[in-house]
Design goal:
The chain has about 290 residues and is α+β, with helices and mostly antiparallel strands. It is about 15% helix and about 40% strand. The protein is globular and about 50 Å long.
């Protein structure tokens, strides 16, 4: 009888454990995003987004060192991207990109409860080093999200400096560069000579986060990477977190990660998620 009682107690414990696990799973937010990609345009479908969608130019460009004072066509390395796989639920896409002369990039975009997770494996398959210094994986078009245009979306967009979270209309700006329009924001380790050939803000970053607030004030859309080369406010009402690659030696491979966050408008929570995802990167203070 004692043995039966023990078995019964054990069964009850297992049932309670399973109920607890099911409850925990039920409490996890269910991703509502779906992804599609065609002609280098990644579309994020989500009812929480104004207009129900977000467009991202993916992938945009791979660049050599010395970009700031050089013609863009002389800086850019040609690349071609193909879609390899789409999961039936539209929550994961896998790609292959070839960058001239000899770089293979295998990458994926996956839906997470708080946005998108982007992973990149870059490999130099050639016998010579390739001077691919940085790249622009995601040009995030935010006009629909912010309800603003080129002239005023800076008041809804932000980065973090030593003074904390600052909207882009309240950060010092410059208006001289090879190409006018937009503004580049640099971390302390990026040389201006290697930056985007757009005007560079004199204020330096204290974090790799750049983001914006939705037109109704309820949501934040933000992005960051684990190797920040620069953040960029572009000329297509767009925001960028552009990662550093640092060149590839013959046979060398590097892994990089980027996040795109769609979270309630709580800057403290956004910073917490950034610190969780990129613990080795500079912190940020709201």
């Amino acid at each position: 009888m004692g043995w039966i009682r023990i078995r019964g107690d054990l069964l009850a414990a297992v049932v309670l454990l399973l109920w607890g696990l099911m409850g925990a799973i039920a409490d996890e937010p269910v991703p509502s995003m779906r992804l599609s990609w065609t002609n280098n345009l990644l579309t994020v479908h989500d009812a929480r987004l104004p207009g129900g969608r977000l467009e991202v130019w993916y992938l945009e460009a791979f660049l050599k060192p010395g970009a700031h004072d050089r013609d863009w066509n002389e800086t850019r390395l040609s690349h071609r991207t193909e879609l390899l796989h789409v999961t039936p639920d539209g929550q994961e896409l896998r790609f292959r990109t070839r960058v001239d002369p000899s770089v293979l990039v295998l990458h994926e975009v996956r839906v997470e409860p708080d946005g998108l997770d982007l992973r990149f494996l870059l490999s130099n398959e050639g016998t010579n080093a390739v001077p691919v210094q940085w790249f622009q994986p995601a040009c995030i078009r935010v006009a629909e999200f912010t309800g603003c245009g080129q002239s005023n979306y800076t008041r809804k967009s932000f980065v973090f400096t030593a003074k904390g979270r600052r909207t882009l209309d309240r950060i010092r700006r410059t208006e001289t560069a090879r190409y006018l329009g937009g503004q580049v924001y640099l971390p302390p380790w990026t040389a201006e000579a290697d930056a985007n050939p757009r005007p560079i803000s004199p204020d330096r970053l204290a974090s790799g986060l750049i983001g914006c607030v939705s037109r109704d004030g309820k949501w934040i859309l933000a992005t960051a990477s684990d190797q920040t080369h620069e953040l960029f406010e572009g000329v297509y009402v767009c925001l960028h977190s552009d990662p550093l690659i640092g060149g590839l030696k013959p046979g060398e491979s590097k892994r990089l990660r980027q996040r795109l966050y769609l979270v309630p408008n709580n800057p403290d929570e956004l910073v917490r998620r950034y610190r969780r995802d990129f613990p080795s990167r500079p912190s940020a203070t709201p």
